[in-house]
Amino acid sequence: MQFRVALAVLVATTLARPSIGTAWADERTDTAVQTALDIGQTIGAATACPDIPRNRIKNLTERFNEAVKAFGPTKEMAVSIGGAFDQGMVFGGQAIAARQIRCDTASRDLLSWDTGTISLVPIVPTAPPPAQPRPAPPPVAAIADAAPVFATQAPVLLPPPPIAPQPVVQEPAAIANTQGVTDREIRFGMVAPFTGASKEVGRQMKLGIEVAFGAANATGGIHGRRLSLVAVDDGYDPARTDTAMKQLYETDRVFGFIGNVGTPTTAVALPYAMSRRALFFGAVTGTPLLRADPPDRYVFNYRASDAEETAAVVQYLVKIRRIKPDQIAVFAQQDGFGDAGFEGVATALRGVATASDPGTIPRFGYQRNTEDVDAAVTAFHQYQRLHNPNQIRAVVMVATYKAAAKFIERTRDKSPGLTYTNVSLVGSTALAKELGPKPTLGVIVTQVVPPIEGYSSVVLNYKAALEKHAPGEAPDYVSFEGFLQANLLIEGLRRTGPQLDTEK
After folding, report:
1. Exposure pattern of 12-41 as b/e (b: 16+ CB <10 Å)?
2. Residue 213 φ then ψ, to 5°
């Protein structure tokens, strides 16, 4: 029942739009929207159930498309019907993921449509009733009051499921007088490493964003506009970041930035974007710079901070693995990235051991953009010799994948049984490849996204989109993060409306 209430709130909000002419037209739209919402919910739920045959879903999708054509909607009706259908699909997938409905129920709902007639036309007299003035839309406060129910019950955070038909074609919106926005395109920029020691993280992030953009473009884009991404390589070198940002904003004329990679590079990119009031969305960094209080107006952050990730790791090592606080060391990059992670470890250790002092936590490091871990390895072995041979039992790593792999390879033979933990920015797939075929037992990577081995609707949607728009690419935690971040951006763009600008 609660699930249906959430849908009713959505319909009420969707229909709070200018009248399309007459009460008869309103009734036609309301009926069509509700039918589209119900069918979308059925298809979305069925798509999230792997045991339901895909041909049944395809059949209902095709029948719905035919019903829309027979209905002959006006442009405004078409927008409402298409939006309701998409929202219904999102809700259906979420309901399965949240176990609000079961797959056997979804199968029965699908069967009811298989055996029934799809009609978007209400039962009405042969002649339309006289035109009546439509009641004024509900006041903003009323919609705002209802919003928490909608947000709590079914937040629209998921991309469209893999079978996402577009029953109507939206007309391109009027040209907006905004940089990076035309009547056909919304252009975004990305600064990331595509060469050097962190290139795989940059490549995977770009891949995830482009897959999400491709899926959105395949269903008509955003208010008739296609999404595009222009990516520039800064090699994970802050000295190159400013030039890259200027190229994107001043030459390529992007609307905003999404998916920039790196903590030291963000320290350069963020002030540039803020000074131009440009959108800075979903950077791949755990730096405190993105977490101002109160929040910076143009900054939208998705991921957990480096300090939060390392603090969670310490809690796991101490509470679950029963490793003593003085048996935990840190291997970290010697810059703001490594400092943020180290501070998370120190803070967490102070919480579990009152005598813990950051000055007593052994820290080994290396220079950014290198794989030179010789000094760190030597210092680690010296520390072990000066103390008990097994004094250090766990190393919390805040590093890039090449440096992390080399440190693991050169220390684990002399310290068997050591546990190595890595923050998500390391790139788990890239790290595994660097470590090679040798067993990686004892190597842990924290993540800020759901497990890609799972069967949640968002994971299934990601894998379907990856297969369609980047065939041959394997699922990866970094590209999945890019996919999620891009879909959050896409939803924000949709809600902003056709007349797009940064302030909205």
Report:
1. ebbbeeebeebbbbbebbebbbbbbbbbbb
2. -60, -40
Look up residue 318 and give its amino acid.
V
pLDDT at 459 over 50: yes
Residues 397-416: tens digit of each pLDDT? 999 999 999 999 999 888 88
Residue with tokens 């229909």: 15
Residues 152-183 pLDDT 10s: 233 334 444 454 444 444 444 444 478 999 99
CA distance 72 to 353: 70
Q: Distance from first CA to last CA of the chain, Å, rounded?
A: 34
Judge whether 400 and 333 are in contact, CB under 8 Å: yes
pLDDT range class, residue 223, cuts 50, 70, 90: very high
DSSP structure string for 338-361: HHHHHHHHHHHHHHH-TT--GGGS
Contact 480, 449 (CB under 8 A): yes
In a 10 Å sphere around its CB, with 0-12 CB exposed, 13-18 middle and 19+ buried, how is residue 231 labelled? buried
Residues 37-67: pLDDT tens digits? 888 889 988 888 888 888 888 888 888 888 8
Determine contact, residues 85/61, Cβ cutoff 8 Å.
no
d(CA 37, CA 146): 18
Rounded-to-integer distance, Cα 240 and Cα 274, Å = 18
* 251-285 burial code (b ≥16 CB/10 A, e <16): eeebbbbbbbbbbbbbbbbbebbeeeebbbbbbbb
Give the C-alpha separation, 165 to 95, whole Å.
20
What is the identity of the amino acid at 133? Answer: P
Helix (H) or strand (E) holding 376: helix 374-386
The pLDDT of residue 6: 28
What is the C-alpha separation between 32 and 30, in angstroms, rounded? 6
Any bridge partners for residue 233, and if so which? 192
pLDDT level of residue 9 (50, 70, 90 thresholds): very low
Looking at every residue in the chain, the average pLDDT score rounds to 81
How far apart (Å, rounded) are the C-alpha atoms in residues 32 and 181?
32
User: Residue 259's closest CA among 190, 172, 157?
Assistant: 190
- Distant-in-sequence, close-in-space partners of 330: CB < 8 Å, separation ≥ 6: 341, 342, 345, 361, 362, 363, 364, 395, 396, 397, 398
Euclidean distance between CA atoms 83 and 166, whole angstroms: 10
